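Complex record, two chains
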Amino acid sequence: MNTDALPSPSAVVDAFIAAWNRGDLTAVVNLLAQDVVYHNVPMDPIMGRPAVAAYLTEAGPFRDVDWTVVHQASHGTIVLNERVDRFTKNGKPISLPVMGRFDVRDGQIYVWRDYFDLTSYRAQFGE
Amino acid sequence: MNTDALPSPSAVVDAFIAAWNRGDLTAVVNLLAQDVVYHNVPMDPIMGRPAVAAYLTEAGPFRDVDWTVVHQASHGTIVLNERVDRFTKNGKPISLPVMGRFDVRDGQIYVWRDYFDLTSYRAQFGE
């Protein structure tokens, strides 16, 4: 593989967030490696692209997605960011302060770990 | 001020974590700016070094402190890290996965924002 042609880890995360913000779940999933581990830290990790795709489909649909990256920094193949993830779900506007850690390999994300307060998140749904 | 002599933002955060790990709360507080904003994101921010010092004193005492930095990356004056903060409080061993964002100015931290799941944290105390 010609790794010279691959986007930087930070650019891969930028593309991932841009895909979310266009509401393009197919592009989101295509930026995940087959062996991805997706871990919302308060919950159990989800292993593998098919399982993550199924989870994201079931968890949604997410409308009016607007993830704002407050800060992002990378170190080798690791990208860390601080974000505010905004979207609408079941008609409710959600705004979630979150930090994420991404590991990138061959232009795809193989670890995606988000840190946030689950109670604050669920309260916005009235749960 | 001769800013050439100042440690890098990442080195300031390293020193801050080293101070925690020695249990040296005085050194911890001395690495905070007078106008620091300390925000555990699920809770209200605490403004100013005296208020933060009072909070940290009241929240503790923290024993056997061992904060492990999993990853850290900086971008300008901003430092982002992923950590596991371990300590003992009231005889209970606590292990908290957290991500933090630090802003550094003149060798001191003036924004410290930690993202974690408050329920997971409190559950470890039996709250």
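Note: Chain A touches chain B through 25 residues (CB under 8 Å).
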